[in-house]
Fold this protein.
Amino acid sequence: MSLSLTAQFNSVMNGLWEVDATWSSAPPDNDCSPAGNDTYNITHYVSSNCALISFSGSPTINVLPGGTFYLSGSGGVTGSVRINVSVGATIIVLGNLSLSGSSNIVNNGNMQIYGNVTGSGGSSFDCNGSGTGTVQIGGTGCARCTDGGCTQGVALPVNLASFQASSLSNGISVSWVTSYEENNAWFELERSIDGVNYSSVYRKQGKNNFQVQSMYEYLDTEVADGMTYYYRLSQHDFDGAQTRTDAISATFGTTQANLLIHPNPASSADLSITLQHMAHEDVLLVLYDVNGNQLCSKLAHIDSENETISANDLHTNLPPGIYMVAASNKNSLVRKKIVIH
């Protein structure tokens, strides 16, 4: 008798399916042909650059609330693969989705498929889950939907993957990420101090028929210590239609999260990083080079209000140059420049 061992992998940051750093530990099958019988839990924006990502074997993929699984090509699901899409979760497929074998998809969230859905064998596709799921496809074929919850021939809109506001030392950073844009003329960011009356503070041109992830950011410096500010985002089509998000908020103040680098400049051997006001949180530290390329990352649990860690915990023997370190938790994002001599 032999036992089949399974492992569980959790997303820890926005990133590519194929990159080990996206996951809590390095999966054996996070490539364009994942197989085995492991479980993948997605709570971030996880994308795949595979022209065809083909799931086989018996893995389980759970796209959990707040998570997005974005396939820039087509998707194939065979074997006894199970995909669960939770309420508040999204799967986007820019190509076709083919189901075969005894594969099973249960959708309680939002699925958007630019192409068609095809099915064969004993595969099943529960489009509407327990009554909360929606499936929109750009094509006209939507096979295996067991409850008629698939809308066909839809011109898919701009998909907003995230919208958040974070207090920094010099203002409030408001950022949003789109996974694709179609017929998007511009974004308008509005601000309020009471959550009722809003005024426009920023307009940014959008993209038309743009099928890769895009990030937008605005730094609001007209803020006062201790004040809470509310933001909402409206998206405007070329034909005049518009949609608006729910409001988000952030409080600006001296007790907000902060990041201290000391000494700076420094050699990589004696550099320390102090995290302020991020206690009792899981914090993701990411190190970038001067060109914005990610060098490494570390997920750490912070126990005190002023916790110091060695830069060697992130990277050893950094060559001389300029770097950027970012620390983020569920409420804050802080960035600081590092100079290594």
